[in-house]
Design goal:
seven-stranded parallel β-sheet; Rossmann fold; 2 domains; alpha/beta; binds ligand GMT
């Protein structure tokens, strides 16, 4: 089931004059038609796909989202954008409903229905495999395929022995590969022994949406005036080390009045709550669950904790920086590319709870230092990770593929 494409195709404004047109088969030209394939849940890859789709649609390109559910950032009518739900017919024979095949089939149909020029998959596994299959099934060798690697697909899922071969195959078959950090690019090349080009295109935020906007009264409702507010945002997978966040906070709260807001949900939430309760922090650690809009909460915060074990980029850190929230994070994966150590936050070894608590206290007890870091965080987020910086990089990849006819 798909929602209708908005009217006014081709009326979008040009951003940085980087509009790309393709031949319309009648001697004229038209904007590109792009299929965006992603997971719809609160993970960073779905967020990035949605934001990229919005930017492309605003330029006048036709953007078709395919997933099993509407990605949460795409609620409401968006001009030039359509959503196509991928449904898998339930059948008792299937122990595992074949979602990747249903996706490939829907994509193959859409290649013809919408005249797709590009299929942009977010995740090598399973989306890039489905994209390749769709191209073959539709006999559409002209359709270009782009795959953005986000980390989870490559380092956690794709490198497992059961999926390794197909992950590698999907990357080899993609017309272009992009990775969200230099670190992920290098890890991918090494893990899969690939020799091909991987473009590093970082994630981005909309600086208008992600800016410090304090909601009147919210801070007072969350904590007493003298307390500092820390946030932790994740999907509470083991790799995010939610328990470490509580332990870091425990050490901080022994020195200064503070509250910790735990945002998100997932398997480790119970362990984090148990740790908070064991450490006598039940009233100071608030579990707020899944939040569609984190800006008001980030705008009430003084610091974000990102103690992850693995993070190919760390979108939560970037969103916080854009809201003038300095970051205390693990020195791992792409986080050092996002957080400027000693300028917009501090980095420490994974699991070094003591050091992360010490660095947090350094910032939280020195208002001038904190102010400087907060300002630098916003400046870095806007200067390096805004659509103006990042969108042209994706457009360049698209343009190159379309002109070289891959
Ligand atoms: O780990 C998550 O939050 C979910 C995950 C995803 O695949 O949606 O995030 C990955 O992609 C994000 C967007 O590119 C990155 O910001 C995260 O660092 C990355 N997660 C890991 O590498 C563990």
């Amino acid at each position: 089931m798909g929602t209708g494409m908005g009217t006014g195709m081709g009326t979008g404004m040009a951003l940085g004059e980087r509009k790309i047109t393709v031949g319309d088969g009648k001697g004229g030209s038209r904007e590109m038609n792009i299929a965006m394939v992603c997971y719809p849940t609160h993970g960073g890859s779905g967020v990035v796909a949605s934001e990229l789709g919005k930017q492309l649609a605003a330029l006048g390109h036709g953007v078709h989202f395919l997933s099993y559910e509407l990605p949460f950032r795409l609620a409401g009518f968006i001009e030039n954008m359509a959503y196509h739900e991928v449904e898998v017919a339930p059948y008792p024979l299937f122990r595992y409903p074949p979602y990747s095949l249903a996706l490939a089939s829907r994509l193959a149909d859409l290649i013809k229905e919408a005249g797709l020029d590009i299929i942009h998959s977010h995740y090598a596994i399973p989306h890039a495999v489905s994209a390749h299959l769709a191209k073959e099934a539709a006999g559409a060798s002209r359709v270009a395929t782009v795959t953005t690697l986000h980390g989870t697909d490559i380092m956690l899922v794709g490198s497992s022995s059961s999926l390794y071969t197909l992950t590698r195959f999907s990357m080899e078959k993609s017309g272009a590969l992009t990775a969200v950090s230099q670190s992920l690019r290098e890890q991918t090349l090494e893990t899969f022994g690939l020799e091909r080009e991987i473009h590093v295109i970082p994630n981005f935020i909309d600086p208008e949406e992600f800016q410090r906007r304090e909601q009147p009264g919210l801070r007072d409702r969350l904590a007493p005036p003298e307390a500092r507010i820390l946030v932790y945002v994740s999907n509470f997978r083991p790799v995010k080390r939610a328990v470490d966040a509580v332990k870091i906070f425990h050490q901080i709260s022994r020195e200064i009045p503070a509250k910790l807001l735990m945002i998100g949900d997932g398997v480790e939430r119970a362990a984090a709550a148990k740790t908070a309760s064991r450490l006598g922090l039940k009233d100071q650690v608030l579990f707020l669950g899944q939040q569609d809009n984190v800006v008001p909460l980030l705008s009430a915060a003084d610091l974000i904790l990102v103690p992850s074990e693995l993070e190919s980029f760390g979108l939560a850190a970037l969103e916080a920086m854009a809201c003038q929230v300095p970051v205390i994070a693990s020195r791992v994966g792409g986080l050092p590319e996002v957080v400027a150590d000693g300028e917009t936050g501090y980095l420490a070894p994974v699991g070094d709870v003591e050091e992360m608590a010490r660095l947090s206290l350094e910032l939280l007890t020195d208002p001038e230092l904190h102010r400087r870091f907060a300002m630098a965080a916003r400046q870095r987020a806007v200067g390096l990770f805004s659509p103006d910086q990042v969108l042209p990089q994706y457009l360049e990849v698209y343009e190159k593929l379309l002109t070289t006819g891959v």
